[in-house]
Amino acid sequence: MPPLFNQQDLNMAKLDDRLASLATMSPAQLSKEWEAAHGAEPPGVTGAHLRRLLAQRLQEKRHGGLPLRVARELDRVAQGTGAVSAPAQRPALTPGTRLIREWNGQTIAVEVTEAGFCWQDRHWRSLSQIARAVTGAHWSGPRFFGLTSRG
Q1: Which comes out higher in pLDDT, residue 81 or 129?
Q2: Consecutive H or E run containing 131
Q3: HSE-up of residue 72 (Cα within 13 Å, Cβ side)
Q4: pLDDT of residue 85
Q5: Are 22 and 32 in contact (CB under 8 A)?
Q6: CA distance 32 to 41
Q7: Domain ranges in the chain?
């Protein structure tokens, strides 16, 4: 069998064949493939884990890896030099809370109720329904009312 990583073109059919061939390789063969692909000894992991690492490398070679920015951030986190911030929590909406938004000169005032939201003397299940009624376009209701940031 030819080495997994030595051939230039790696189309989908060849990728599938190469991934399938990993399942039948012994740990020694997997180590040899790792050395051929990376020019170094494989990490001290089990054969099953090495098989997964090689499969990931083959797929990266065919489809591309992580964007450089993401890879750098993961490296920083792994080294303990990067802080991972928790996603911003949406404020809790308790019954009686009023959400105010100005849209095209019109003030939109929504009241939070036990069962959802009240706007223009009508009950709504979600803020997104209200945002759509106001704008005529699909909007994230929480974003429309400023409860989440963009992105």
Answers
A1: 129
A2: helix 127-135
A3: 3
A4: 63
A5: no
A6: 8
A7: 12-79, 98-144
- Among the ranges given (53-67, 73-87, 108-122), the one the predictor scored with the smallest mean pLDDT: 73-87
Using CB atoms within 10 Å of the CB of residue 5, give its burial: 0 to 12 exposed, 13 to 18 middle, 19+ buried.
middle
Joined together, the tokens standing for residue 107 give 């003030």
Handedness of CA 89, 94, 97, 102 (dihedral sign): positive
Name the DSSP class of 90: P
Pick the closest to residue 95 from 116, 123, 69 (CA basis): 116
Q: DSSP character for 125?
A: S
Q: What is the mean pLDDT of residues 37-55?
A: 88
Determine the average pLDDT of the residues in 39-60.
Answer: 88
Q: Name residue, tokens 């499969």.
A: 55
Residue 81: pLDDT above 90? no
Tokens coding 9: 């073109």
